Amino acid sequence: MVKKVTKLLILTFLLGISSLVFAQVETSKTTDSLNQKSDLDAPDVIVISDSDLENETESQEISSLLTASKDVFISTAGYTFSSARFKIRGYQSAYTNVFINGVNVDDRESGGAFWSNWGGLNDATRNQEIFSGINIANFGFGSIGGATNINMRASSYRKTIKATYSLANRNYRNRLMVIASTGETKKGFSAAAMFSKRWAKEGYVEGTFYDSYAYFVTLEQRINKKHSLGFVAFGSPTRRGKAGMITEEAAMLSGSEYYNPYWGYQNGEKRNASISNYHQPRFILSWYFDINEKSKLQVNAAYLFGRGGSTALNWAYGNDPRPDYYRNMPSYYDPSDPDYDYYYQGWTTDEDFRQLNWDYFYMANSTKLQTVTHSGGVYDENTGTVIGGETVTGKFSKYIVEERRTDVSQIDFSATYNNVFTDQIKFTAGADASYYTGDNFKVVNDLLGGDYFLDVDKFAEGEEADEILYYQNDLYNINNVVRKGDIFGYRYLSQVNKHNAFAQADFNFSKVDFYVGARLSNTIFWRDGMMKKGTFPNDSYGKSAESKFLDYAVKTGITYKINGRNYFDFNLMNMTMAPTFRSSFLSVRSRNTLVSDLRSQDISGFDVSYKLRHPRVKGNISYYLTDFSHGTWSRSFYHEDLNNFVNYQMTGVGQLHQGVELGVEGEIVTGLTATAVGTWNNFMYNSKANATISIDNDASVISDREVYLQG
User: Looking at the domain assignment, is residue 372 inside a domain?
Assistant: First the structure.
């Protein structure tokens, strides 16, 4: 119902625009321009003269609302509420676009932006244009949640040298930042560079550490009055020890809500088994072309590459060795069971008991001598035998530390054209294309005292008569013996190509401002398996079918200016959005099978606001409503009874988000400002969904059923 109403309102609004345009343009022809300089060069500042404040008549020109200026609610809630993992309007990050120098930097597999890729570059990323919710921006089309552009153009940095040291007690303890910039020289050259270091031997949560660097370089050469070339490079190599999510029982027994099960003592030092290690630098080359006083063109080429990974324990035999595994908790046992007292006493009285036992891992790996035959052989489908291979004897590691990797490579091209036709009409158009490859695999990080680890699927063992073939992770590498740095388990390439084109127009008149915009998008993705699994010999190796989605987006909005201080704002949007790569496969680690009934998500929404802009008080109150339909939801988890990983996918997920937002900021006395923000939100599933439940090592579907989520 919401989608139909939204589309009808958009159509009605578009049909009425022409008469309004002609009427306003005729009126504007008699109005002298106050400033012949292009509005593209105007800063994000609202300028109101004393006479404007004293004589707010119906006929005078009223300043337009600058949507790039930070909204009181958005700027306050986005920062202050972040510690509570607050999501504005309940939107996932995939519903907000992030740009750097006009290049979209959202992750191509999940849809959201990884801000950690430029973490630590605070002074280099301060120049931001933030457009919240449904709105119009001069650098891109945006999404239902808005858009942000971080300006790293060298000529935008004033001449400065600045050094900062900070001390904190959160994720990291120390932060050092140094930035230097030349400003624009007489020869038209600009440069800025920044370096930062953030570190902590241990953060606030026990067993964590932080070791991060960040670098940034931007250069620009003005060739002449019309042409400039710019270059940007940045990255943030970071290693950090992670903290695990815990149950209430674990917090109570350990005596701390900050208990971390990921670490244990090794040789008297704390060692964390879950370490994140990311470094994905990006380079952007830009051509800035000032065609004339009122039109500009920017063309970008960008390249992203690098590694991403996180370590974790893996084990070949026996129970889960993690201390907070549910069978290692007292609650798993009956209070009359002797094991209940054993685990209760251990958890409450012995710190070593509730942490990882690294000494045990090393001891277990040093005692298991094992021989592997046909290692490295290849299965011959014609003869049904294993060809080649060798015999390997050594200490078999029952426990290892693995690293789950996603290494990326991405090329982007984009162009944005801005034109100020008149003082009342602005036009923006653009196009972009990106080509992404993600290399997903596991490597052995540490054998923990053993000589090798056997690359077979432990969850598939014993399930087939021809067991030696069935549990192989790669039939082209039978009984693969892996050592430190070797790839094992799974490997596949995620290929995602995206193309977008958009156009939008912004009209600004004495009493009314409005805009219209449209975008067309094309998304193609596929999986390319690099291992031939024994459980899926015909559906794991090679290229999957291509998934293709053609999507659109239309939006419009109007601002009615009561006077120079009071505004009413109304925005509408309808769009479709392709499913993400990660949510589209039944079991992306093991096979090429796609989720059934895969389709684009349909999103419709509107918001209406009253905004006050007073010299001493500013604020806004907004109501919004957004309808999401045909969503895809994907989760994977280990199922104890099935002794396997279960994949749970839902399609046809519908959600309705609505709420009220309030933000007020007032100057009490000179230099003292008070801010108040609040929000009421209601997020509900508004449709039933279809669920497909499968396991990693079986082509059959466990269940295909309707899920009663509605309400």
Answer: no
